[in-house]
Specification:
It contains two helices and 21 strands. It is mainly beta. It has one domain (about 1-275).
């Protein structure tokens, strides 16, 4: 399954996929990381479910790369035992660097200024497989805030198996009146923030232990944990390298029983994002 749509010169595009299309992912070419992505699925005779709700493409892309790195780091280790006929294993987490992606300056038309664009970005819709669409099902993909880039496109790809789940991103508002917020962790596995919207402090309770991080800590840990996430090409060479925090700071809250975020003296509401699989 492969479907291609031209996005050149556009500011928005809505695509509806139906029975037989069965997408697992899509590939964006020359699309702004600030473009907004919405993904809605309506099963026959059921109400629509929004899985990605007007999220910046760069935030979704970088979040998925970090989630994949966090989810692929477990390896088996042999546990020493006197019974050689009955080997025992346990697992350990080994840090895995998130895969890099690349941006570049790309034209938006004759006489128009160049704007940053993702050279090639693969966004997953299903986890480890494709979303099977039956008769009467409609999957709607909406892209807005496109920057009229030339030679811009989206191509949908299928998978080899049915998806185990669907990536789900939800935008939440942190109202300015609340200096502290106890995040609702029901059906939440990861938290994400724009780097400019980081809390001053984040307190986790995991396995009965209290862990506290400042915004500087979070950025430092993210850069160290994920390595090079984004590189920017300019005039045939690498102009800028972003170590782990270009579009999003991702927090793994799997197993946490409480997460408290705090930021004093705000004059505006801020957004944060909860990530899960449904």
């Amino acid at each position: 399954m492969a479907l291609n749509y031209d996005l050149s010169g556009l500011t928005q595009k809505t695509i509806q996929l139906k029975k037989g299309d069965n997408p697992a992912s899509f590939i964006l070419t020359n699309v702004s990381p600030d473009a907004k992505l919405k993904c809605e699925l309506r099963r026959k005779n059921k109400s629509s479910v929004t899985y990605i709700d007007n999220m910046p493409v760069g935030l979704v892309l970088e979040s998925q790369k970090k989630i994949e790195a966090l989810s692929s780091a477990r390896i088996p280790v042999l546990r020493p035992t006197s019974d050689l006929s009955n080997p025992q294993y346990f697992t350990v987490d080994i840090p895995v660097t998130a895969k890099s992606y690349q941006t570049h300056d790309y034209t938006t038309g004759m006489g128009q200024p160049e704007l940053v664009a993702l050279k090639t970005a693969i966004i997953s819709l299903g986890v480890n497989g494709e979303i099977t669409l039956h008769e009467g099902d409609i999957l709607t993909i909406t892209l807005t805030n496109l920057k009229k880039h030339e030679n811009s496109s989206i191509e949908f790809k299928g998978g080899r198996a049915d998806a185990q789940a669907i990536y789900t991103f939800t935008k939440n508002t942190w109202e300015k009146k609340d200096d502290r917020l106890n995040v609702d962790l029901r059906e939440v596995q990861f938290l994400a923030f724009n780097p400019s919207d980081l809390p001053d402090t984040v307190e986790f309770v995991i396995n009965g232990q209290l862990l506290q991080h400042t915004s500087d800590n979070l950025q430092a840990f993210s850069a160290d944990r994920f390595g090079i996430v984004s590189t920017h090409e300019k005039e045939g060479s690498i102009d800028r390298v972003s170590y782990g925090i270009d579009n999003v700071v991702l927090l793994d809250v799997r197993g946490a029983t409480s997460v408290m975020i705090e930021k004093d003296g705000r004059t505006t509401d801020l957004n944060y994002y909860t990530l899960n699989f449904k």
